[in-house]
Design brief:
By secondary structure, the chain is an alpha+beta fold. It has helices at residues 49-65, 100-106, 116-122, 129-145; strands at 14-21, 24-29, 32-38, 41-42, 69-74, 88-93, 111-112. The protein has a 5-stranded mixed barrel with strand order 1-2-3-6-5.
């Protein structure tokens, strides 16, 4: 999906200090801890501790497979994705070139964040419909496989 974006001028690799959940990590950014929220995805609801633990565990696996190092494409367009102003929104690029955001959706352990396009429009930002469609396509495959958060859905 975002393979082309991973070849952008972003060359800096960051060490991941910790994994908070299925859509949040903490990286060492210039000697300071920085919380990173994965752009455009929503992890399982907090009222499902087992699924939340699975989502976090899969995110840990992705980061481990990336040797604890990631590249970031920051998404400064949507401030409303997080309530904490100290959190950065990013696409998290793994060492194998895959995007963690997309891999979490592909695994069925996250979904495309509802209302994302209306938030972009409300904030006067322009984003291609193609990005949303790509993520929704990946999500649709996970739904059809009935994996992760889609396991008990009909």
């Amino acid at each position: 999906m975002l393979e082309a974006a991973s070849t952008s001028s972003q060359k800096v690799q960051y060490n991941v200090i910790s994994i908070i959940d299925g859509s949040t990590i903490v990286v060492d950014m210039n000697g300071k801890e920085q919380t990173i929220r994965y752009a455009m995805i929503e992890p399982p609801k907090r009222n499902d501790p087992k699924l939340n633990a699975h989502s976090k565990s899969y995110n840990e696996t992705l980061i481990q497979q990336s040797n604890g190092k990631v590249k970031l494409i920051l998404d400064t367009a949507i401030k409303s994705q997080v309530k904490n102003p100290g959190v950065l929104i990013a696409y998290v690029i793994l060492s194998n070139g895959k995007i963690a955001n997309e891999e979490m959706i592909r695994s069925g352990l996250a979904q495309v964040r509802e209302g994302i396009m209306s938030e972009f429009k409300r904030e006067g930002k322009d984003i291609t419909e193609a990005l949303k469609k790509e993520l929704q396509t990946v999500e649709s495959i996970a739904k059809k496989k009935m994996i992760g958060i889609w396991k008990n859905q009909k």
